[in-house]
Amino acid sequence: MRGAKSAKWVAGAAVVALAATACGGGDGDSKGKEGGSGGVISMEIGEPQNLLVPSNTYETEGGQVIHALFTGLTKLNEKSEVVNDLAQSVETKDSKVWTIKLKPGYTFHNGEAVTAKSFIDAWNYGANQDNAQQTNPLFSHIQGYKDLNPGPKKKVATKELSGLKAVDDNTLQVTLDAPFSAFPAQLSFSAFSPLPKVFFNDPKGFGEAPIGNGPFKMSGKFQHDEKISVVKYDKYPEASKIEVKGVNFKIYSNLDTAYKDLLAGNIDFHIAIPDSALATYKKDLDNRVIDTPDSSVGFIGFPLKYNDAFKKPELRKALSMAIDRKTISEKIFQGARTPADDFISPIIEGYRKGACGEACTFDPAKAKALFQQAGGLPNNTLEIGYNADGGHKAWVEAVANMLQQNLGIKVTAKPFEKFQAILNDLDAKKYQGGFRMAWNMDYPNMENYLRPIFSKDAIENGSNYAGYVNEDFEKLLVEGDKAPSKDEAIKKYQAADDILTKDMPYIPVYFYKLNAGFSSKIKSISVAGHNVLWDTVKLG
């Protein structure tokens, strides 16, 4: 998943359980014992890139809100394991045809029953290229996807995925193009949420005040650049397990400001401690913090397809070798990041230590020689864009200085005020420079670090901002999908990963850790896949 802060683009990131024993405190207007303000808590997010529609939300800021408003078929638990959620069972005999039984009793916030058709209609919409949904490529395994995605400027002849069938109101049958053993894990991502009938009458209006089926419902409309407020949906089947009565998602364009508000008791949960506070936040917050490995990978990317200056893999490898990852991790992030040596996070099965090899090894002399051999950059200049609302200024400027010093070129770090702004420019194929990006898992599988970012399908309907295409890579993805066992799938995905380490469409720079903090209003809180698990939150 995309995000400045986390599979999604990250603006930060999170996959962890937090716990503390302190009680009391919280918002400036806290009242009473139950978490103050009647059990309402507040947390920091950035401005979502798009309106609040599950299939068009592929970054962590909007994703956090979608997760509160919608419930899918499966989910991640506190250990980041895939377990059933609205699904009573997810069964298959061949990993190609899946039968999903729904739990009864779930309704949308307008009272409409959640049925198998609610999922089918939502997935058909998300998979249709005419609707230009950010998560479109995630539906590519379902039979009929190609009919809904014939390509740019080509007419879509149907509006339905042939692989979807409602056996009855509570039974959904899904037929894939080929076996895909990770399908239940993929279903845990919010893009596969159901939608009520009212959505299709006015998708844009719906996105301003979505009607979900999750533990919380909207309280008013999306107040852009300010906040998104939700309150507990009392008719949610598991409502009695949720102690929090409401959440104010406060929108910040500056993480330092959000951190000051956390210290002042004006917000209760800060999921991405800014660089400036990494040296002191544990003491500042009396250890109401988390510091643990995360699923996100931080990159410097290049628009290969849209700027010929970056087309040579040797040049991209030279840029990578000129970056001192160890110094960035230890000096800029105070040990809150670790040097990246793969395109896959270390917490994902299939990660290999040192997989990136020489390309991710700091060697300024070799880097300069290779850079010159590759012909260098036009005018010996490079610009690297980054979102200023995600606390990235220090490390991107450090990378710029390293490249400038080690390669003898002029490098400029260009701030975009919001993560939304740089994503929009990249979506429009408008931005021509290098760019800071990070990826947090949508679901815990190697495939999710490969297809959504680097596949051919993800160029027009996804997150392949590089415009990267390698047919051998595409072939290995398909072979991994069809592999008869998990181990064989991992081998194929690792081979695809090896192609990335050779081509270097992006430069892996660091692996994230989750560095979060919370107020004394919160006694314990668990987070998985960057999303708060609301039934685990205990208030002081």
TrEMBL record:
Segment forming the signal sequence: 1-22
Domain of life: Bacteria
This protein's name: ABC transporter substrate-binding protein
Keywords from the UniProt entry: Signal
InterPro entries: Peptide/Ni-bd, SBP_5, SBP_5_dom
Taxon lineage: Bacteria, Bacillati, Actinomycetota, Actinomycetes, Kitasatosporales
Organism: Streptomyces crystallinus
Residue ranges annotated for the Solute-binding protein family domain, each copy included: 81-458
